[in-house]
Amino acid sequence: MACAIGIRGPLKLAANHSASIQSCDGLKSSVSYPVSQRWSSNGSWRCRMIVRPLERWHSNLKASLTDAGISSDERITVLVIGNGGREHALCYALNRSPSCNEVLCAPGNAGIAQSGDATCISDLDISDSNAVISFCRKRGVGMVVVGPEAPLVAGLANDLVKAGIPTFGPSSEAAALEGSKDFMKKLCDKYNIPTAKYCTFNDAAEAKQYVKQQGAPIVVKADGLAAGKGVVVAMTLDEAFEAIDSMLVQGSFGSAGSRVIIEEFLEGEEASFFALVDGENALPLESAQDHKRVGDGDVGPNTGGMGAYSPAPIVTEELKGIVMESIIIPTVKGMAAEGCKFVGVLYAGLMIEKKSGLPKLIEYNVRFGDPECQVLMTRLESDLAQVLLSACKGELGKVSLTWSPEMAMVVVMASQGYPGSYKKGTMIKNLNKAERISPAVKIFHAGTALDENGNLVAVGGRVLGVTAKGKDIEEARERAYAAVDAVDWPEGFVRRDIGWRALRQKQVV
Question: Of 65, 252, 261, 370, which sees the most CB atoms within 10 A?
Answer without folding.
Answer: 370
